[in-house]
Design goal:
seven-stranded antiparallel β-sheet, four-stranded antiparallel β-sheet, 33 strands
């Protein structure tokens, strides 16, 4: 079982800080054209980009193997507090079981599976010591790379040794970017929609997840990237990218994470069910053995989950936080106490609003969920979420996601264009606090983002980011126009010549 040292610290008092003029535009998520009700922290319905249509599929069995309605083109009003206060006994589910619409479903296999990956022996692994972040804010330089022909970019991952990156377009194409030459090579993978990409900690492979099909006819897919083929010059699509066979059935595969321990399995978030009764499934995946293990499933009402993070419970044992907020709003927590696995529906706060993305500090001691509709930055720690009044608030509806530095000292929080600026904030571990109108989450925008060479407009988002592990900088990618942008903390170890 994975164990981390647990640091207990309370959440600060909320402080409203307006760094730039709020432009009253709502962010768009990956499914923006199908966005359902957008909820504020108090549960108030916000203006929607697309009100959608009421679901007409309310009686579809929720089987892990059933390709039922994925909710595309449909939406159902989803309360912020989905099924809270209605716990149920574990149902003893297997992949073939029919799932009832209960908030707490079978917790499945123990989390010990996560630590039993069967990877190639990399020597004894010890939990790293994570130092505090810088006391003072950093300033950053940004540069758009001169790479044309990019579509809408969705996700980015940098190899652990910092030599190259994989960048996914929203559909079909993956780019491999050589970080020495800054040359990108595109690969057409097929008619797929991509959600996430992550490297294994030992760098031997990366996993790409998403789905194929559209509307109610979708099916989750996983691809492996072959690091050895890339390094030895066998750089054809067939040699570099391989579709994983026998993937457990799901409407979509939306997110994955590798624990920092290279001997551990990936954890993958699958979704299924119907537009009015969505189901989230967690499975571990052993890359080397090509083996999936079922962990558990939970009903998330009308809210589709979009991201996950590893974060310890109140006893210092590992848990998995899943969040969703593009259509409705909910979060759930899967963990194990005394050898018994369990699901918790929205522990600590039933009114977080639209939390769509989350990243945990590499120690697993806490996670930082991002509310895209209110601009609030939450903290999940010791198995519970901060209250809305304890969250950091910037009164800006423009942040979207977050990426932690591999050593845990910093994270960048980023999102939508705000006026002429590209919205970026720096969070410094462990300084989730405010005093005297000064928050230790500092504003570090891309200046003149709406001008050359960026030419961003009000619907341009910084969709994803990744840090290099050998310096203090990394990459950001945007949707429209599709851009790859380097970032560098000034005065720190340089990433770019």
């Amino acid at each position: 079982m994975l164990m981390y040292a647990l640091a207990f610290s309370g959440c600060p008092t909320q402080l409203n800080v307006s760094d730039v003029e709020k432009n009253n535009l709502l962010p768009i998520g990956p499914e923006s054209q199908n966005t359902s009700q957008n909820l504020s922290d108090s549960g108030v319905v916000l203006p929607s980009l697309d009100a959608g249509h009421a679901s007409q599929h309310n009686n579809i069995p929720n089987e892990p193997d059933a390709q039922s309605d994925g909710g595309e083109g449909e939406s159902a009003a989803a309360p912020v507090n989905n099924d809270a206060g209605n716990p149920s006994a574990h149902a003893g589910l297997t992949d073939a079981s029919i799932i009832d619409a209960t908030p707490d479903m079978d917790a499945g296999a123990a989390l010990e599976l996560i630590a039993d990956a069967g990877q190639t022996d990399t020597g004894a692994w010890e939990t790293p010591v994570y130092e505090e972040g810088p006391i003072t804010p950093s300033s950053y330089t940004y540069e758009r790379l001169a790479i044309g022909g990019l579509g809408t970019l969705e996700a980015v991952a940098i190899h652990p040794d910092g030599t190259y990156a994989i960048i996914l377009e929203r559909t079909e194409v993956a780019h491999v970017l050589n970080l020495a030459t800054m040359q990108a090579t595109p690969f057409e993978l097929g008619n797929y929609t991509w959600n996430d990409v992550r490297f294994h900690p030992n760098g031997t492979t990366a996993l790409l997840v998403g789905y194929q099909g559209a509307g109610s006819e979708t099916e989750g897919i996983i691809f492996k990237f072959n690091d050895h083929a890339w390094r030895t010059g066998i750089q054809t699509t067939e040699n570099l990218f391989t579709e994983v066979s026998d993937v457990p059935s799901a409407l979509k595969i939306v997110s994955l994470k590798f624990p920092t321990n290279p001997e551990s399995s990936a954890i993958i978030l699958f979704t299924g069910g119907s537009s009015s009764n969505r189901i989230a499934y967690l499975r571990s995946y052993n890359v080397e053995l090509d083996l999936f293990e079922y962990l558990g499933a939970t009903s998330t009402g009308a809210t589709e989950m979009t991201d996950l993070a590893f974060v310890n419970n109140e006893f210092g044992n590992m848990g998995i936080l899943i969040v969703g907020g593009h259509m409705g709003a909910a979060f759930h927590y899967y963990t194990e106490v005394g050898g018994v696995s369990e699901w918790r529906a929205q522990p600590g706060n039933s009114n977080t609003g639209n939390i769509s993305y989350v990243e945990a500090h590499p120690s697993g001691n806490y996670a930082i969920p991002i509310n895209w509709s209110s601009g609030k930055i939450y903290r999940f720690e010791s198995g519970t979420m901060c209250t809305s009044s304890e969250a950091l608030s910037y009164n800006l509806s423009n942040i979207r996601s977050i990426a932690f530095q591999p050593n845990g000292q910093r994270a960048l929080i980023f999102g939508r264009t705000s006026g002429s600026l590209g919205s970026i904030y720096e969070y410094r571990h462990d300084r989730f606090e405010c005093s005297f109108q000064n928050c230790d989450v500092s504003y570090a925008p891309i200046n003149n983002f709406s001008s050359t060479p960026y030419n961003a407009d009000s619907n341009t988002y910084l969709m994803d980011g990744a840090w290099r592990s050998d310096c203090v900088g990394g990459l950001l990618v945007s949707n429209d126009p599709g851009m790859i942008i380097t970032f560098q903390a000034e005065g720190a170890v340089a990433c770019w010549d």
